[in-house]
Design brief:
The chain has 212 residues and is α+β, with helices and mostly antiparallel strands. Helix content is 25%, strand content 33%. The protein folds into two domains: 162 residues, Pnp Oxidase, Chain A (Roll), CATH 2.30.110.10; 42 residues, no CATH class.
Length: 212
């Protein structure tokens, strides 16, 4: 079968204006809860899109670690490509693809660095091996082999074998403060339901239905 012929009907549900909440985070909470309860693998996995100085976008999958009405939080190596690009241009887009439920959420906004205290609180809650991996990897930098990476990881295990792993100064989090959030529900005959929330500074959220 040609990939051009691969298609299926979307029939899991509908999204109407009566389902909308005044604040989009409240609807996001419902949808994320639905994804978790449905047993979707990695329901907090999201695509994070940034852009470099030449306008070239890049994407990667990152796990959402917190959210509230102030935004969406993730953590990373501050020397990584995404962190470097955000330093030059804080505009960012997130995307949650919950395919099993025929839903997706798209978020646009600006990323702000978290405080050292916020970074430390989360870092110290991570499993020790994850803490060690943060020290062992200079994320996005070239490396000659996996063996070298594992050697660096073992060196960190030996170094911190009998003591707590401190927060690296090159590791931290970002809060994405949204200005636009779209909720998409697949519909039959490609007549999908799309609702977009938008917010300007110091104003309340507004919503509109978008054509599919």
């Amino acid at each position: 079968m040609s990939i051009a012929d691969m298609r299926r009907q979307y029939s899991q549900g509908r999204l109407s204006d009566t389902d909308l909440t005044a604040h989009p985070i409240d609807l996001f909470k419902v949808w994320l809860g639905d994804a978790i309860n449905a047993g979707i693998p990695d329901p907090t996995a999201m695509t994070v899109a940034t852009v470099d100085a030449d306008g070239q976008p890049s994407q990667r999958i990152v796990l959402l670690k917190d959210y509230d009405k102030d935004g969406f939080v993730f953590y990373t190596n501050l020397g990584s490509r995404k962190a470097r690009e955000l330093a030059g241009n804080p505009r960012i887009s997130l995307h949650f693809p919950w395919f099993f439920m025929e839903r997706q959420v798209r978020i646009c906004g600006v990323a702000e660095k978290l405080s050292a205290a916020q970074n430390a609180k989360y870092f110290l809650s991570r499993p020790k091996d994850s803490q060690l991996a943060a020290w062992a990897s200079q994320q996005s930098q070239p490396i000659s082999s996996r063996e070298l990476l594992m050697t660096q990881f073992q060196q960190m295990k030996d170094k911190f074998a009998q003591k707590a792993v401190p927060l690296p100064d090159f590791w931290g989090g970002f809060r994405v403060k949204p200005s636009q959030i779209e909720f998409w529900q697949g519909g039959e005959d490609r007549l999908h339901d799309r609702f977009e929330y938008t917010k300007k500074a110091h104003e309340s959220w507004t919503t509109q239905r978008l054509m599919p």
